[in-house]
Amino acid sequence: MTTETKSRDTVAGKPIDPDAPLLDVDNLSVEFRTDKGVVNAVNGLSYELEAGETLAILGESGSGKSVNAQAVMGIVDSPPGFITSGSVRLKGVDLFDLKEKERRQVRGSRMSLIFQDALTALNPVYTVGWQISEMLRVRGVSKTDAKEKAIELLEQVGIPSAGDRYDNYPHEFSGGMRQRAMIAMSLALDPDVVIADEPTTALDVTVQAQVMELLAELQKEYKMGMILITHDLGVVADVADRVVVMYAGKEVEQAEIFSLYKKPFHPYTEGLMHSIPRADQKGIRLEPIVGQPPDLAAIPPGCSFNPRCPYAQDVCLEEVPAFREVAPGRFSACHFAEELVNRA
Amino acid sequence: MGRYLIRRVLQFIPVFFGATFIVFMMVFLLPGDPIRALAGERPMAPAVQAQLRDEYDLDDPALIRYGKWLGVLPDDDPNPRVLTEEQRAAGVEPPTGTFNGLLQGNFGENFRGDPVSDILGRTIPRTATLAVYAFTFEAILGVIAGVFAGLRKDSFVDNLVRVSTIMVISIPIFVIGFGVQILIIAFIQSDAPGWLRSLTDGWLNISWRDPDAPIFSLASIKAFFIPAIVLGSLSLAYIARLTRTSLIENLRADFVRTATAKGLTRSRTVVRHLLRNSLIPVVTFLGIDLGNLMGGAIVTETIFNVTGLGWEVLNGIRGQEGTVVLGIITFLIFIFLVANLVVDILYAYLDPRIRYD
Ligand SMILES: Nc1ncnc2c1ncn2[C@@H]1O[C@H](COP(=O)(O)OP(=O)(O)OP(=O)(O)O)[C@@H](O)[C@H]1O
Ligand code: SF4
Ligand SMILES: [Mg+2]
User: Fold this and answer.
1) What interface predicted TM-score (ipTM) does this complex get?
2) Least CB-packed of A261, A283, B78, B254 within 10 Å?
3) Domain annotation for chain B: domains and CATH numbers
4) Which residue from B minimizes the CA distance to A105?
């Protein structure tokens, strides 16, 4: 399809490790050096994604979800943003070791990013079709082939009369169609990993479900690993296999989605669950988590959740809880996770 | 777009008449007696004065004079313009009482009897040449400076651009003009090395001489070099700042991030996505500025003795030559209107979100 033949055995020319997970994020830290001080947006984040798996990353606004996605893609605004520790490996190949030119071969082609708001993510002065086919054209595909492929992609994501829509500008699309076009663009080069950063937040509730369904379908069809970033577990519940819960730029809990749903093993996750409406628990009063999300320029010592945690003890103010397996397949970063487990 | 264009061109009509009427009133209601100004120190016989007053309709009410000037009221002066070549050769007397004004293509005459259209024909090419050079200079240098400053915010280049542009903006243009002249004189009087002198030979002129050469020829560029830089300096500063601000605004835009995430090269991201979007306000500014440069050349032309439109307007005001001033300003109003229309069309072309209908 492309002249730059995509070998599944290499990443940017480097041999892959066949035993390594598809995507392995390890101890990732990103900080923003701003006039108002250093903002620690991501603090030692680790997670893995297997091929064909959908991983949800859940967290409140400002917990570093988007910055994590940008760091994985290698598009953090720098300055002010700096990656201060960790590694991101795609099939065992450390992306931080790559030269910018090699990194560029990975972007868009091996992993792609779907942005939250397609209206701002698409360039207003070019047609939707042009922007999709640009991905192919810059990789040596001829103009006519690129257009043909772009129309095919638009059809695949459910845009009616895609051939005519090819020449529309983003503002001539509805919100749902724009996000579909964005999805089409992210799939253009058949990537191994797709990161969708709150792909439905900007959409109407009815359209949200359709777009989520489309993503799930395509994920199966393309057999790719998908990361769904969200602040609302309900939206991704039907789609995701596993969940990583983030708080203050760190993972605090990780589990298979249904067991997490049944019983959270971290007080923050528990708080999140009580704060969102659930179809299976109608009538239960919603209680938002007390207190403000942490100031990332001044994260409290000890457990970063301690100012808002109903279970906090003295030890929480001093010692950072380790992220550990507290039950089979269940990981939590809380000193008292076992108590939560045993309460069940 | 077609209907929009028609509507816009129709809007020209009231704007054009309104603007020329106001300027007409201002020019002809100026205090002072144009005939006395024409006579200067020499005495002029009262009979001659009366004849001139009659010929130029100086004693008519202002509205009547405006009507005659426009060509919607009949003029009682003989009008040779309506004669054919043969009639003129045969010595036919020109008729009077014809409509003979702007709408008939007649800009009138100055007190020496030279048609204002001749003056326009002589001066417009000079001013247009000066404006085109200034425009080229400010557009190229301004955008380049703005891009370098914007891409490396807070760097040395950025600070240099910020400080130098604010200086140019805060210094009046005539100070810059005279300052440049003083610098050139100082350079000529200094003992600069010979190679530097030969390198700058012909470029550094404090007074303009008609190069009598086509535009963009070397002789023409040399002759207009210094005046064009002075004329373009203010807009250059604005363009550099506008480009810089617009670029910085878009640098963090999501669509630029998308372009990077698509795996585009840095240069393609910058040129095709960042610049393409950031230059929209700059291009519209440039469009309006082309009109501004034509009209704004008065000071520069006076300092460097460029006998163009601005120079002629100033002379016209000094000599109370109402028709000359009016003719030139009418032309400039027309240029402004056209420039504005072109900018609006360009804007819709550059930003597809803009729709006129
Ligand atoms: N370019 C930047 N410069 C400075 N700070 C930044 C920048 N980008 C992100 N941050 C900071 O990093 C922190 C994490 O932001 P991030 O966008 O990752 O949050 P998020 O979890 O995606 O939230 P949301 O749900 O609102 O999208 C925020 O406090 C934000 O202020
Ligand atoms: S470690 Fe302490 S403060 Fe943190 S979540 Fe557990 S109980 Fe709460
Ligand atoms: Mg975000």
Assistant:
1) 0.88
2) A283
3) 20-104 (no CATH), 116-350 (1.10.3720.10)
4) B263
